[in-house]
Amino acid sequence: MTMLASPPEVTTAPTQADRGMAHAALERLHILHLRKRPYTQLSGGETQLVMIARALVQQTPVIIMDEPTAHLDFRYEL
Q1: What is the residue-wise DSSP string for 29-64?
Q2: CA 47, CA 61: separation in Å to the nearest integer?
Q3: What's the count of helices (H) and strands (E) in the chain, helices before strands?
Q4: Rounded-to-integer distance, Cα 17 and Cα 20, Å
Q5: According to the model, what pLDDT value does residue 60 have?
Q6: pLDDT tens digits, 40-72
Q7: How far apart are CA 23 and CA 53, in angstroms?
Q8: Which one of 2, 5, 15, 50 has the fewest beta carbons within 10 angstroms of its own beta carbon?
């Protein structure tokens, strides 16, 4: 899911740099252990963290979040 953060004009397979950015985002959010799990099997909090990682990979200058800690597992709220 994090790899889907590539710009829409990119139609090629992810590069090594793309994979590195996705890996770094997952590591930064301490969710690297989720990388092989199907998106449909993640909890609501895990899904939210994956979507935040996806936004980080896009390298947008601003990320606007509405209640970013809602539905997070307790260990991630602190």
Answers
A1: TT-GGGTTS-GGGS-HHHHHHHHHHHHHHTT-S---
A2: 22
A3: 3, 0
A4: 5
A5: 84
A6: 999 888 888 999 999 999 988 898 888 777 766
A7: 9
A8: 15
